[in-house]
Design goal:
The chain is mainly α and 543 residues long. It has one domain: Amino acid/polyamine transporter I (Up-down Bundle). Helix content is 76%, strand content 0%. The protein has 22 helices and no strands. The longest helix has 48 residues.
Amino acid sequence: MSRLLIQFIPPLAIILLVVTVLVNPDGVAAVISELRTFVTGGFTWLFVLYSLFAVAVCAWLIFSKVGSRVRLGGPNAKPEYSNFAWYSMLFACGQGIGLIFWSVAEPIMLRDDSPVVRTLGSNVAGNGLVWSYFHWGFTAWAMYCVVAVCLAYSHHNLGKTLTFREATVDLLPKWSRGAAGVVIELLAIMATILGLATSFGFAAMQFSSGLTAFTGLSSGPSLWLVVILGFGTVAAISAFFGINRGMRLLSETNSILSIVLVVGVFVFGPTVFILSNMTESFGAYAMNFAAMSFWTDAPSTAGTLASWKDSWNGWWTVFIWCWVIAFSPFVAGFIARISRGRTLREFVIGVTIIPSLIVMVWIAVIGSAAIYYDDLTARGVSAAVGRDVSSGLFVMLEAMPVVGSVLMIVATVLVATYYVTSLDAGTYALADFVSAPKKAGACFRVILVFSIASVTTVLLTLGGTAVVDTVQTGTIIGGFPFSIVILLMIVNTIRRLLKRDRATRELEKLVNNPDPNVTLQVLEPDQARQDAPADLRPAAASA
């Protein structure tokens, strides 16, 4: 019964939501704006503490004995992918497409308005870089990482399905687990579908902006529809061929093109200015990390907040942390799937430290170049970002000598490949959520891709950009209730790790026994603990 509810309620709920938004877009937008004001005005402190908790858990896993002793998939498990392939896939599904544009847009939008950071003196424009490092760097990756750890340990070590409910419900009273598990999984599925669909819409618009920049094509519903069809087809092919042949190849292509873009901007752009800005802003980030992490803008809460637009955090930190939480189901689910064979310490370092360094170098190079050409063109990049966030990168590249046109093509292709890999990763996670405990087949993943493309087409072609923005904002605000689910899941995983004893270790070995002639009934850790280790030996499969 639970499986039927999980399979049929999300599509019906999404159809109802889409119809409601299309019929009354202004009314729904007003309600979502009020909810955003409510969340920003009353719960900024909660999101700040949540982010700090995520960082603390990651630090514990890096420095504790638990982090070095526990290997995902059991003590003898080996990584399935090379480090380059692994980093490429987790980076592509985690931040790739957003970072392409926000690495220009955020430093430009915050160059004159960046609280807390005060250590750069006369280099006021560099303050926006520091906040960009904070919003896209270590803390954001730590928030993804703690969710991925919970799912990965539950799946690879305890033999659970790769779902949120299985990683959470044994913390709850037994009488509530069935209903709670359904609710938890419904939230994860709806967040994944709506998050992917609305991101699909914005990716189509951003890719169209790139085409417009160097081809002269007119961006509009017809071009958007062609782009959606193209993206969907490539993603479906990748999903059909699987992670090893599809997703891995696309992700490694992303990494190579990203290196070309960043190196091209660094070498042919204002190299000395980039190096100088990078040095100053890295130091400022290190010095201001604690202050930015704890900043809630307390004076703004002295009275009732009239609108989220009156709060700096409403535009930035709260909105971005909600974004990360709302996108955690598919990002963390996919990261968990591809990370078997690594210790928890290796996993956390690989998911937080390495991507954060990549993000900081990326933003330092692209963002510094944007600031330089913004000044050179009398705030031309700022004007472009004000009109359309996605156009800022192309305006900046257009101002570059020698290779600007080539890099515009590279950036446009990156929009496509990064989003296709995000959609591919989301499809794998969604297939696990929907089909568990059964394993989803390639054809089912293809159906999911085109289902998400259909939702995107309806939103974008019938409702336009305002409707897509409304649904995406609503999805991200949905990160508020989902954060409670994630907190319960993290607490449950910490409980599991701290109570891990000899019986649990034996269970982990048996769960990952590669012998096809051996069967095992997976037990709850608490149940396994009550039985003697000898009782956990698998019975030989009957002929």
